[in-house]
Amino acid sequence: MDLDHLRSVGLFDLPEQLPVFGPGAASENRLASTPDPPDPLDAPAASGSRWSPQGLKEQLDKLPVSQLFPELCDEVMGILHRWHQRLPLKVWSRMVKICKGSAHQVPSVLKELNESAPVIQRVRRWVEALPSTAPKACILDLGAGFGFLSMFLSELLPCEKVKEFCLMDMSYANRGVDNSSGTTSTEHIYKVQWQIPMYTLKVDLKKKTTLNQIAERLLQSEDLRERPIFACGIHLCNTLGIRAAQLFNENAEVSGFAFVPCCFPTSRHVAQQVVYQLGQHRFAAREFLDPKVVPSNTDRIETNSKGIEHHELHRPTNGMFAQNIYIFAERPLNMQPIQVETRGTCVVVDAKFGHGSKAKKKAQKKKR
User: Which GO terms describe its biological process (predicted)?
Assistant: First the structure.
């Protein structure tokens, strides 16, 4: 491997001392606790590298998020400088890797920021609104993957108001279990001292039994029972999006829910005239796919109905990527447990042809 080439593109200009791991390393290794030393990539030879923080800044300025959330982008650039200096080379390389299949050649960390900015801002608003007497909150990151969303929030949220992040994904290995395999590495989660601790949990969110286990063993546990809980997820594909909304609907312990659905719904769902339900609010599949039905940044509901205080369906007009729907739902804090039958379910509640092509053909035969 040509080390001079790595240095020239900004991938080898890291501190000689790697992060100190372990509970005693907080003062040395906390990512946001001390002023940053001068960035080694400020040198003229490396300032033009597209993988350096300065190079990322130039690419970030071309994305819609820089126009929609300029203050957030300024904060994120400070975070990227700290990460570049203190994270291991392997982790930084993964963060600036070009997204697979991306026609815009956008590094992963910028793509995730561009798509998750509305969720980041909403979670920050929820946490900042917590009263000073409230216990520290817990953030559930559904379908977390590499953990970009939690990593950003760990830097942006006040540690005096948030206790921990729980990252859930099927791609993780079970910690403490021998021979447990996973396709997503978690070394950057556990071997770096984050401002707010993060933990991973290997779960299959597509299974209804998993939701029951999360409710019984996590949401209703003694540690979390009295804490504000906020759930969020970015690009929860198809069934994952349905299950995530179901997790919110069926558990009054979750005070806020913010997610970005992906592959949900499809044009097939529009043809079937599918209608979904979040709490008591119903919305048709066509609302997702037809921008004329859902104007940009329009509040969908402002009434207090069966556990949902506010629910919004957003469609930013300047979204760079195809899926740009953001769904937010929230409940009042300290809400008393409600009956399961009044919580609503995120399932198909009305479909002209039912599910699948067989049901559609059957319905068409009846018409004849």
Answer: methylation
Joined together, the tokens standing for residue 139 give 């953030």
Strand order in the sheet with 229-237: 198-202, 162-169, 137-142, 229-237, 254-262, 326-330, 310-314, 298-301
Q: Which two tokens stand for residue 18?
A: 């790697």
| Contacts of residue 178, Cβ cutoff 8 Å, sequence gap at least 6 | none
pLDDT along the chain (368 residues), means of 10: 40 37 38 38 42 89 88 96 92 86 75 90 94 93 94 96 94 67 82 92 87 87 86 82 81 86 68 67 66 43 38 42 66 57 40 44 56
> Which one, of 250, 302, 256, lies nearest residue 281 by Cα?
302
Q: Which two tokens stand for residue 360?
A: 């559609």
Query: Who contacts 1 (Cβ-Cβ below 8 Å, separation ≥6)?
Result: none
What does the domain layout of the chain look like in residue ranges?
Answer: 3-11+23-32+39-110, 118-263+291-334
Q: What are residue 326's DSSP bridge partners?
A: 314
pLDDT at residue number 353? 41
Residue 128, classified by CB atoms within 10 Å of its CB into exposed (0-12), middle (13-18) or buried (19+), is exposed
Which residue intervals of the chain are DSSP H helices? 3-8, 26-29, 53-60, 64-68, 70-86, 89-95, 108-128, 148-156, 187-190, 208-214, 239-250, 267-271, 285-289, 356-367
Q: pTM score, two decimals?
A: 0.70
Rounded CA gap, 362 and 368, in Å? Answer: 10
Closest CA to 175 of 200, 196, 156, 147: 200
Location of structure tokens 């291991």:
88
Q: Hey, CA dihedral for 71, 73, 78, 79, is it positive or negative?
A: positive
- Assigned CATH topology for domain 118-263+291-334: Rossmann fold (3.40.50)
